[in-house]
Amino acid sequence: MSQKVALICGVSGQDGSYLAQLLLEKGYSVFGTSRDVQGSSFLNLRQLGTKEKVQYISMVPEDFRSVLVALRKSKPDEIYYLAGQSSVGLSFEQPAETIQSITLGTLNMLEGCRMMDKKIKLYHAGSGECFGDTQGKPANEQTPFYPMSPYAVAKSSAYWLVNNYRDAYGLFACTGILFNHESPLRPERFVTQKIVRAVKRIAHGSTEKLKLGRLDIARDWGWAPEYVDAMWRMLQQDQAQDFVIATGITMTLEEFVQAAFDEANLNWQDHVIQDPSLFRPTDLAIGRADPSKAKKTLHWYASTRGIDVVKKMYHSI
Predict the structure, then answer these.
(1) d(Cα 89, Cα 256) in Å, to the nearest integer?
(2) Model pLDDT, residue 268
């Protein structure tokens, strides 16, 4: 068999970097896109020791010609579309950029696949944020969307575009509806990384206070390196299907904070301040997931769950 070729759009991010590592281990030829290859440091890939093993292409997802050039250069068998603005909080400040980079970028990639003269399997990175607040009920693949942020609106729109192209044009295109997943590669603008890094500094003598918004929100937090394996498994199926990818365990942000400070043998209440300026205009209270379809069909399940995610983050930074 000839070597499989994968194109990872957004290769320099957390998921893109771990996915590149996984696919290289599986013997793939890996191409990765970035808006500006010459100006990108690819720090995450360098950390994982894979920077020199990936072939890079500059691509602006919102520019269809740019997308088409990337497809023709790489001639991929599989595409993992992970590009676009990835922060829920930032999407309230930059809604237009968020919606354009996610929705228009996905549309361009789908249209590009449709125009290629070979069958390509496309994975699209969806989000559990699309479900909004399900009143504590676990969300599965049949749960209706109720997006509560510009980010979630963009991801919901992209999800329906993927479904439409799958139904209308017969593309092998699917969405992984991923709930929160963390790792040492997360930027500090994500609250989990903000917490863990602050705890580390305080444990080493910093007198700073950790400022956070709502502590009563609850999320399903998983371990990112495990989630990229689910992405790959989705594209190995005979039929394109969408899957909820999550641990099935939900914990509050307060529990996450307490667990992080416990690792440093500190009382979290001595070091945390709740700052109303960090509250979002709208925020779902509880994110709860039912990943049973992924376990049954993909034979995938999260090994790192709940408090173990916090411990793993703390000891890997």
Answers:
(1) 18
(2) 97
Token couple for 53: 């093993």
CA separation for the pair 51, 44 (Å, rounded):
8
The Cα 127–Cα 180 span in angstroms is 8
Q: Which of 27, 33, 32, 38 is nearest to 4 (CA)?
A: 27
The residues pairing with 9 across neighbouring beta strands, listed in sequence order, are 33, 81
Taking alpha carbons only, the member of 9, 7, 8, 19 closest to residue 185 is: 19
Name the DSSP class of 274: E
Q: State the catalytic residue, choosing from 28, 56, 81, 151.
A: 151
CATH tag, 5-182+220-249+289-298:
3.40.50.720
Q: How far apart are CA 124 and CA 157, in angstroms?
A: 12
Question: Would you call 169 helix, strand, or coil by DSSP?
Answer: helix
| Entry pTM | 0.95
Q: What are the structure tokens assigned to 152, written together? A: 């979630």
* 295: its two tokens: 């376990």
Q: What is d(CA 8, CA 260) in angstroms, rounded to the nearest whole number? A: 32
Catalytic-residue membership of 159:
no
Q: Of 78, 80, 86, 129, which is the active-site residue?
A: 129
Specify the CATH class of 191-218+251-286+305-316 in words: alpha beta
Give Cβ neighbours of residue 101 (< 8 Å, ≥ 6 apart).
Answer: 61, 62, 83, 84, 85, 154
Ranges of the chain with pLDDT below 70: 1
Asked whether the beta carbons of 63 and 111 are under 8 A apart, the reply is no
Amino acid identity for residue 241 in this structure: Q
Q: Are strands 78-81 and 181-182 parallel, antiparallel or unpaired?
A: unpaired
Domain with CATH 3.90.25.10 in the chain: 191-218+251-286+305-316
Active site residue 127: yes
C-alpha triplet 295, 296, 301: angle, nearest 5°: 10
How many CB atoms lie under 10 A from the CB of residue 286? Answer: 17
pLDDT value of residue 1: 60
Query: Which one-letter amino acid corresponds to residue 257?
Result: V
Residues of the chain with CATH 3.40.50.720: 5-182+220-249+289-298
